[in-house]
Amino acid sequence: xxxxxxxxxxxxxxxxxxxxxx
Length: 22
Description:
Elements: H1 8-19
């Protein structure tokens, strides 16, 4: 999953990470 950078899952993960869910 490194070839796709514009996926809803990746975007959601990024938002979660920004909130401190990592």
